[in-house]
């Protein structure tokens, strides 16, 4: 490796700067953590794992890599990728959580709108807590919040609020980015817009996001959290679609859906549906016509402490009356807004205790048009996955127009498409398959989509060749490759995505 004068010294100083702060999936501060991620499938060793404290230092590191013959740089958010996307073989991995850590700022603009200015390496759970301290909240949240702001903005950041407010990338109005040439650039819709829209869902290819300005709204204090069980997939999807297309005020604030096995398996079957240990699932209510899978809508209504519970009950009654879930198979709980948003953290803690958190996680996420979802249910949920996956099988619709087409994200053509997430958490499944067979199952599912010419795009996937990426990006490939030439011409950034090769 050839590194130009002075650079090596700078880098060694920064290696020493790897500090005592918790870095990485398992709070590890050591070099090995940079060769691991949540997926636990791919491991490549970097040259160094660096933890700069300031964005100026990070810019200097990128400039040093730019001046070197062969160094690459991977920003590592919280390492929750599943296919080595935040790794850099023989390159520099940056612990983003150390950069500008804790530097949060509230900004009021245009008279009434509030924004949080936060570091790109901040965890969403810390952003949420800081905002709640001001009585505010980001509008759109992912299911799980131990992800970094820069990590989700580089992908999309989807969840149960996406149908209303779009993904994270639709709720950010400005970024500070360090390009692949080491330049620090402020960008927004009005200023350096090519870089702004390129970096959003840009898979880390155009720059490292060091700060983001996130749109906020007044925070609710509580939510009525509800699960509604369906035996028929078409009734489940029709109700889900009618809820996501209803005007604000005539629907829930949060809408997702899940498929579970129609069995008494405690992990994969209907015992996993109730929200509280004192709720029981009366399986005699499942219609005889039900197939191998059941489905539940997961919805929530936000409210304030001083809202009357009678009024909340009445609103919920009106909304539920028009839905066709199985009578008697509905589960409700009132929880704080914060506990609701952090509910997956609870599942994480249980998975850690059981050791499942540390197992490999071959995940598959698909955006699939509504026109193909019924066929997918038959061919995949009811066939390939009918024994469950030892984790969560999410399936819920969102609206395409809530995503900004100017970002780097590619989507199906349809206005309504489903987010299908096959989240293998490593929990027990009958006839526990090997990791290889789970990976093969994922490929089989992608083949189902291909063979049926479904209108779909993979999300958070890691193609292995540029040809496959070109096909994935389709019409957007020209813009994507053009932006790469401008902002990272030597292909230094995010090598773990396997899109471009270091020049
Ligand atoms: P990393 O995995 O560290 O990095 C991901 C990619 O982004 C890498 O290419 C990296 O180089 C790049 N990157 C990281 N930080 C920056 C930065 N500051 N600037 C530029 N590039 C950067 N996704 C959803 O949309 N919705 C969910 O509900 C959801 N839930 C999840 C739950 C769990 C338990 C897990 C493990 C993942 C979940 N994800 C979800 C996926 C998650 O959004 C992605 O894996 C995301 O990339 C992880 O964020 P991270 O901060 O750990 O990023």
Automatic annotation (TrEMBL):
Pfam families: Cytokin-bind (PF09265), FAD_binding_4 (PF01565). GO terms for molecular function: cytokinin dehydrogenase activity; FAD binding. It is an enzyme of class 1 (oxidoreductase). Residues 42-219 form the FAD-binding PCMH-type domain. Keywords: FAD, Flavoprotein, Oxidoreductase, Signal. GO terms for biological process: cytokinin metabolic process. Its EC number is 1.5.99.12. Residues 1-20 form the signal peptide. It catalyses: N(6)-dimethylallyladenine + A + H2O = 3-methyl-2-butenal + adenine + AH2. Transmembrane segments: none annotated. Its cofactor is FAD. Belongs to the oxygen-dependent FAD-linked oxidoreductase family. PANTHER family: CYTOKININ DEHYDROGENASE 7, GULONOLACTONE OXIDASE. This is cytokinin dehydrogenase. It comes from Punica granatum.
């Amino acid at each position: 490796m050839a590194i130009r004068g002075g650079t090596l010294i700078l880098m060694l100083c920064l290696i020493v700067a790897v500090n005592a702060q918790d870095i990485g999936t398992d709070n590890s501060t050591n070099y090995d953590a940079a060769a691991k991620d949540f997926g636990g499938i791919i491991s490549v060793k970097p040259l160094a794992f660096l933890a700069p404290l300031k964005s100026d230092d990070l810019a200097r590191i990128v400039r040093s890599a730019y001046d070197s013959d062969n160094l690459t740089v991977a920003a590592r958010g919280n390492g929750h990728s599943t296919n080595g996307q935040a790794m850099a073989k023989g390159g520099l991995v940056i612990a983003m959580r150390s950069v500008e850590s804790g530097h949060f700022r509230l900004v009021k603009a245009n008279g009434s709108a509030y924004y949080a200015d936060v570091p790109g390496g901040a965890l969403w759970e810390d952003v949420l807590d800081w905002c709640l301290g001001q009585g505010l909240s980001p509008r759109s949240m992912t299911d799980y919040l131990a992800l970094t702001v820069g990590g989700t903005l580089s992908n999309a950041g989807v969840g149960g609020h996406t149908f209303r407010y779009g993904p994270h990338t639709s709720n950010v109005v400005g970024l500070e980015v360090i390009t692949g040439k080491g330049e620090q650039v402020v960008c927004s819709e009005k200023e350096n817009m090519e870089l702004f829209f390129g970096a959003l869902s840009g898979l880390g290819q155009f720059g490292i996001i060091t700060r983001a300005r996130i749109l906020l709204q007044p925070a609710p204090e509580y939510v009525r959290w509800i699960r509604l069980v369906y035996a028929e997939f078409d009734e489940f999807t029709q109700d889900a679609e009618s809820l996501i297309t209803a005007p604000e005020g005539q629907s829930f604030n949060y809408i997702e859906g899940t498929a579970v096995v129609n069995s008494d398996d405690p992990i994969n079957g209907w015992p996993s549906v109730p929200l509280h240990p004192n709720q029981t699932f009366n399986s005699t209510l499942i219609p005889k016509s039900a197939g191998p899978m059941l489905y539940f809508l997961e919805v929530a209504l936000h409210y304030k402490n001083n809202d009357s519970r009678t009024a909340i009950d009445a609103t919920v009654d009106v909304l539920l009356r028009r839905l066709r879930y199985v009578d008697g198979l509905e589960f409700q709980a009132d929880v704080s807004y914060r506990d609701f948003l952090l509910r997956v953290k609870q599942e994480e803690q249980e998975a850690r205790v059981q050791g499942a958190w540390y197992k490999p996680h071959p995940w598959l996420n698909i955006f699939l048009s509504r026109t193909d979802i019924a066929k997918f249910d038959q061919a995949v949920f009811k066939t390939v996955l009918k024994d469950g996956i030892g984790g969560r099988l999410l399936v819920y619709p969102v609206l395409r127009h809530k995503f900004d087409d100017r970002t780097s994200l590619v989507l199906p053509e349809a206005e309504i498409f489903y987010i299908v997430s096959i989240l293998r958490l490593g929990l027990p499944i009958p006839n526990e398959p090997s990791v290889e067979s789970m990976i093969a199952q994922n490929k089989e599912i992608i083949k189902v989509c291909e063979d049926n010419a479904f209108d779909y795009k993979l999300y958070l996937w890691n193609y292995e060749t540029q040809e496959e990426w070109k096909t994935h990006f389709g019409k957007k490939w020209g813009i994507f490759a053009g932006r790469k030439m401008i902002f990272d011409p030597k292909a230094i950034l995010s090598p773990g995505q396997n899109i471009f090769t270091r020049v």
